[in-house]
Amino acid sequence: MPRWNAVAFLGLALLPGSIAAQSDSLAPVSAHLKAVTTMQAGFTQTDQRGRTLTGQLSLKRPGKIRFQYQKGVPTLVVANGSSLYYIDYSVKQVQRWPIGNSPLGVLLNPNTDLARFAKMVPSNDPRILVVQVRDPKHPEYGLITMGFTRKADAPGGLMLQGWTTRDAQGNTTTIRLANQQFNVAISDKTFIWSDPRPKGPRG
Question: Of 108, 102, 106, nearest to 119 (Cα)?
């Protein structure tokens, strides 16, 4: 079975691979997620073609997240507590998904039972934890692979370094985090967005 290399992880080359049933090791990850009410961080997003964007991430649990991309990028990803939206201002289009149908649901729902959906990926470095989460009953929801490093003063003793998501079509996106700040004040107004669509019925 392949093992995760520490150097690869710290670069967050988190490619889906074999997983090992080590559910007893999920406790620190669960403790971290339950201890985080908000998070702000810079992020670098890389798709499977190697295209990279940067921006600022704001997260507030339950159910709220915002990916504010770098200046000049006319797109926005935001969840307002119930739905996740992808807004493309260049073509005035909006796509919507229930949060629970997104791989990001595990980050946004503090009541997620990791033991039901998550498994540890073996690591050759005890400072590193890598977790894959998927709903076997709903493969169409996709998969998320999260990477953590041990850090005593971080919530639950772990620092979330980033994740890779893979959707039902096999498309992968990697998020690397920097300058993480946990449990800071974030206004609910952060997750309000401007709808670019013409006024009228919503399909």
Answer: 106
The strand pairing partners of 42, in sequence order, are 56, 178
DSSP for 130-196, written as a single string: EEEEE-TT-GGG-EEEEEEEE-TTSGGGEEEEEEEEE-TT--EEEEEEEEEEES----GGGG-----
DSSP state, residue 104: T
Q: Would you say the C-alpha torsion 195, 196, 197, 199 has a positive or negative sign?
A: positive
Give 75's strand partners: 88
CB 19 within 8 Å of CB 131: no
Give the Cα separation of 18 and 96 in Å (integer): 31
**pLDDT the model gives residue 21:** 36
- Measured in whole angstroms, the distance separating CA 87 from the mean position of its chain's CA atoms is 18
* pLDDT band, very low/low/confident/very high, at 150 (cuts 50, 70, 90): very high
pLDDT at 67 over 70: yes
* 49: region left, alpha or beta (phi > 0 left; psi from -120 to 50 alpha): alpha
pTM for this predicted structure: 0.84
Tokens read off for 91? 């073509």
- Cα 39 to Cα 13, 66, 106, 136, distances in angstroms: 22, 11, 14, 28
104, β-bridge pairs: none
